[in-house]
Design brief:
The chain is of the alpha/beta class. Helix content is about 45%, strand content about 20%. The protein has three domains: about 120 residues, Response regulator (Rossmann fold), CATH 3.40.50.2300; about 130 residues, 3-Layer(aba) Sandwich (Rossmann fold); about 150 residues, Alpha-Beta Plaits. The longest helix has 26 residues.
């Protein structure tokens, strides 16, 4: 369900731009051009998720609309054409999400980022570590305005426990001076567990000593803030660190994901399989590695075209997700796929793969005006103690046998007849 956005703006061109931004982010947008309209709208609707508020309206020239909207508990971003320090301080003294000067087009790009993060921040956990309850609560309130999931700890020891309990934590904000374990020690301990690609750390301190920022960074922190800090700078640092993590995650996903099927690619498959197989062997779990190939795939491309062939590959990926479930499934290249699954015994694993094969064989893939029928051949090896490379060769050998002996079948290595 889309969120509701209240746009308080008397300039029609600016309101139109903000509306387009909101709708592009799947907000339902309501526009008000005066304080009187705002009051009337809020009397009948208090379900707004966020609001943008023009500082100066015809009947509210000095920011009177801001406390009106905030009094309804609506997360609000103030848009202003006034740049003086008095106005800035007046805005920041109120619990707004942020304020944006209407200087140029960058203002609207920044607004789009804020409105996007207001929706998505709930999935991001931030851990605040400080022995001062007042400091913890202050930082917590700032973060909650941006809809982050916030966790608290009063020292480094408790912080490490919180990290174990909450896997959604992507950022740690830690004070330097704390009992039991200070911020530098905590940073060191966190970096033994989490890399910079997985979690960011911002150190904070009220001490005047300028070396603390360098100590934090050298011990694994990503950023540093000196108390008392400006909320504007605080939000910019938080956003920058979270965005950096998300960008890294996107790059890693692109590097490890097949562009067409959205399955793991060859590199990701071998990396993950190298981790899974030793775990299965150590736990004495029954498992198998399988190679899967579309029968006569070249004929599909030649008959219906390469776009139809791509569509068949996507549909096959959907069938594999459906049948394999939590197992590892990947596209190795072309029409060749690989699977690692575990289960109770060899028969169960065989039946699971054969169910996949049979489901595909009786289905038709619709593409434009065509109904494409295709089958797959599967070669599998179970519970081998060989290296992953050797098991892949064994599964490939079983696959070759399946294709040479009629196709549309599952062959278990060592059981070829």
């Amino acid at each position: 369900m889309s969120k509701q956005l209240l746009v308080v703006e008397d300039s029609k061109p600016i309101a139109r731009v903000i509306k387009q931004i909101g709708e592009a982010l799947n907000y339902q947008v309501t526009i008000a051009t005066t304080l009187a309209e705002v009051e009337s709208i809020l009397q009948g609707n208090n379900d707004f998720f966020a609001a943008t508020i023009d500082y100066a309206l015809p009947d509210a020239p000095n920011g009177e609309a801001i406390p009106c909207v905030l009094s309804h508990g609506i997360a609000s971003v103030v848009m202003t054409g006034k740049m003086d320090e008095t106005t800035r301080q007046k805005i920041l003294a109120q619990p707004v999400v942020d304020y944006i000067p209407k200087e140029n087009s960058q203002a609207f790009l920044y607004l789009k980022r804020i409105l996007h993060w207001q929706i998505t921040n709930t999935s991001t956990g931030i851990l605040v570590v400080d022995d001062s309850s007042a400091a913890r609560n202050y930082v917590s309130q700032l973060l909650k305005r941006r809809n982050f999931s916030v966790y608290l700890a009063n020292d480094g020891v408790q912080a490490l426990e919180r990290l174990k309990q909450h896997r959604d934590i992507k950022l740690v904000i830690t004070d330097l001076e704390m009992p039991k374990m200070d911020g530098i020690e905590l940073t060191n301990e966190i970096r033994k567990i989490y890399s910079r690609d997985q979690l960011s750390i911002i150190g904070i301190s009220g001490a005047d000593n300028g070396m603390h920022s360098a100590r934090f960074i050298k011990n694994g922190a990503d950023d540093f803030l000196r108390k008392p800090f400006c909320p504007e700078e605080f939000y910019c640092r938080i956003t920058q660190n979270i965005e950096n993590l998300n960008n890294i995650a996107e790059i890693q996903k692109a590097a490890n994901t097949d562009y067409l099927t959205d399955l793991p690619n060859r590199r990701a498959f071998f990396t993950k399989a190298e981790q899974l197989v030793p775990q299965y062997i150590k736990r004495n779990m029954s498992y198998c590695i399988a190679m899967l190939d579309i029968d006569y795939f070249k004929k599909v491309n030649d008959t219906y075209g390469h776009e139809a062939g791509d569509h068949v590959l996507k549909v096959l990926a959907l069938y594999m997700r459906k049948h394999i479930g939590t197992g590892l499934t990947a596209r190795l290249g072309g029409e060749e796929f690989a699977v690692v699954i575990h289960g109770t015994d060899e028969d169960q694993l065989y039946n699971k793969l054969d169910d996949l094969r049979r489901d595909i064989a009786v289905s038709q893939v619709s593409y434009e005006d065509h109904h494409i029928v295709f089958t797959v051949s599967i070669g599998m090896v179970c519970n081998s103690k060989e290296t992953l490379a050797k098991q892949m060769n064994q599964a490939d050998s079983a696959l070759y046998y399946a294709k040479e002996n009629g196709r549309n079948q599952v062959t278990l290595f060592g059981k070829e007849e």
